[in-house]
Amino acid sequence: MTSLARRHFQRVSAAQAAEDAGNQPMHGDAFELMQAQLFEDYRRLKSIHSVERKIEVKRELLPNYAEYVDGVLDAGQGAQDEVLMRVMLWRIDVGDIDGALPIARYAMRYQLDPGEQFQRSTAAILVEESADQALALPDDDDSLLDALIEIDALTHEADMHDPIRAKLHKALGNGHRARGELSDALTHYQRALELNDRVGVKKDIEKIERDIAKQQDPQPDTSPEG
């Protein structure tokens, strides 16, 4: 079977399995094949001590799950699926927040659980792990801002610990500041501070308030006439 035909087969098989599962836990040959692959990949990752190397390996492994994920998202009706949820988390781990978002939309729509080994909800994991990725970016990097805005909307009604939500608002503040959107940045920094007074945005708030004040009260032109 050619690579193209194989990918098509994987996607169609995953879609059929998702359709057959309905809103019951995923089952069927396509899922069990991916579940077995996930088990082997997880064992491989567990044997690696370096976090940096783990991320490299996850990036190598993720394409193997792409057709399965696409098939499930095409036809899924909310079946609990540990493979799908693990791929979402790996996407976030490697910094591919945009790649994680289609799964996140599906997971939040159907309120999927991340799995027994996780103590946080899907929404809390999505918010905290994505915010951590964004907070690690340089100050002038706004590349994750649009994804964070969507994550904020997706999880707006979800219950989670305030410090987790505070991280997201700090990351949103950083992104808006990088774009020069100071008013929006200030709003998010202030919300982050309300949720967690140790989130580390007090100096950011002070600086933005000064910058906004300067914009609103420009210095008079003192250059000589003529």
UniProtKB/TrEMBL annotation:
This is Terminase. SMART domains: TPR (SM00028). GO terms for molecular function: DNA binding; endonuclease activity. Residues 216-226 have a biased composition (Polar residues). Residues 207-226 are annotated as: Disordered. Pfam families: Phage_term_smal. It comes from Kushneria phosphatilytica.
